[in-house]
Write a structure and sequence with these properties.
Layout (H helix, E strand, L loop, with lengths): L6 H14 L8 E8 L2 H6 L5 E12 L6 E11 L6 E9 L7 E5 L5 E8 L2 E5 L30 E6 L12 H8 L2
Antiparallel strand pairs: 1-2, 1-8, 2-3, 3-4, 4-5, 5-6, 6-7, 7-8
């Protein structure tokens, strides 16, 4: 007897293994990735406005049977600004074998794709920019400071896996905060 799984199921499971660094099974899973660009890198990429980026993926099984759910939180620091900007969105598992996640930023703020580069790195695709805010929990301002936007060279970023506790500021649920604080 052969068990046949839907095509997207196998891709999502493989991507989950690579994204979270372990088989997640039925449990909640978290991943944290970060990149701080050096002055030399930024000098050689004058159209890149992102100075550093952190991505947190929070995943759980839906209690009502809708399968594995994914939430993405991201912070970014732009080249000439001191404050940190953030964005959040819900994601679906990639079904084409190329993307691990496809994330829609809250309130029609754009899309972010996550691809697996290797066992410790991801590629974050932001082809058309994404809306960010200074404080996700405050009412959105109509105008951000000048320079608080993705530049023409801010479309693909390689980020490396880091300790989960690094992403504690991006955790939105008490359960995720508790899990990250113990790492």
């Amino acid at each position: 007897m052969t068990l046949t799984l839907p095509a997207g199921f196998a891709v999502a499971s493989d991507a989950d293994l690579q994204l979270f660094g372990k088989a997640v099974g039925q449990e909640n899973a978290y991943a944290c990735y970060i990149r701080k660009y050096s002055k030399a890198h930024l000098a050689s990429h004058p159209d890149q406005n992102v100075r550093d980026m952190m991505v947190f993926v929070d995943s759980h099984l839906d209690e009502e049977g809708a399968g594995r759910q994914y939430l993405l939180g991201m912070t970014v620091n732009f080249r000439y600004l001191k404050q940190t900007f953030s964005t959040y969105g819900g994601c679906s598992a990639g079904e084409d074998g190329k993307q691990a996640l496809r994330c829609g930023i809250d309130c029609d703020g754009g899309t972010i794709g996550v691809r697996i580069k290797d066992e410790t790195s991801i590629l974050v695709d932001i082809p058309n920019g994404a809306r960010v805010s200074e404080d996700y929990f405050e009412e959105e301002r109509s105008e951000l400071p000048q320079g608080a936007k993705f530049g023409s060279d801010d479309m693909v970023f390689r980020l490396d896996r880091t300790d989960l506790s690094t992403c504690l500021p991006l955790a939105s649920s008490d359960e995720a905060k508790a899990a990250l604080a113990t790492h």
